[in-house]
Amino acid sequence: MTEEQRRSFDNLILLCPTHHTIIDKVPAKYTTDFLNQMKVNRQKKTENKQTLLLRVMKFNEFKVYFANMNQSWYFAKPDDTSKLLGEIGYINTKVHLHNDCVNLADREIYSRFVKAVIMKPFLEHLPDDKMRNRYLELFLEEVEKRSNSTSNNKSQTPWSLDFVRLNIIADKPWN
Q: Cα separation of 22 and 8, whole Å?
């Protein structure tokens, strides 16, 4: 593999510093094939949750409620955040993104979390609790189905969420 291929986007895999070190120390165990498969599996899981939310939105029983919905999510970029902090008087700003994953203990905890944090803008479009609970239940069933069909390791939990955390360090001068 050339240096250019090695540094290309297609070859990129994001790891925390700990796992980066572990993989670098045991290259015989973490082969290119192993890492490529790990990357494909992670990408499927990352795309999975949002894709499933949108799929359930399109079910006939919900379609009418989401017909005019605009996505309310805005994911701040580090440069935008740093600029905004500077405009309101912060100095020495350091802003970066960190990919992470959280595994929730079981279906009930996962359900409560996604209902309160992720699905809130979706659920607000539905007319009553019965429809909201139905939407949530169908989403959870889709998560379970998808996890069962894509996981090589059947003991792996479907109750995980990938996320990107925006980290900010900044000083506010005393005036």
A: 22
**What CA–CA distances, in Å, run from 1 to 6, 57, 166?**
6, 43, 33
Closest residue by Cα to residue 130 from 138, 121, 142, 141: 138
- Give pairs for 14-23: CB < 8 Å, separation 24+: 14/99, 16/98, 16/99, 16/100
pLDDT digits (tens, 9 = 90+) for 63-85: 999 888 876 566 778 999 999 99
Return mean pLDDT, the chain: 82
**Dmax over Cα atoms in the chain, in whole Å?**
58
HEC-encoded secondary structure of 72-103:
CCCCCCHHHHHHHHHHCCCEEEEEEEEEEEEE
Residue-wise pLDDT for 22-46, tens only, equals 888 888 888 888 887 777 766 655 5
Question: What total number of domains does the chain contain?
Answer: 1
Q: Which domain holds residue 19?
A: 3-171
What are the residue ranges of helices labelled H in 88-156?
Answer: 107-113, 120-123, 129-150
Specify the pTM: 0.61
Of the candidates 97, 99, 90, the residue with the CA atom closest to the CA atom of residue 173: 90
Q: Using DSSP, state whether 54 is helix, strand or coil.
A: helix
Number of residues that make up the chain: 175
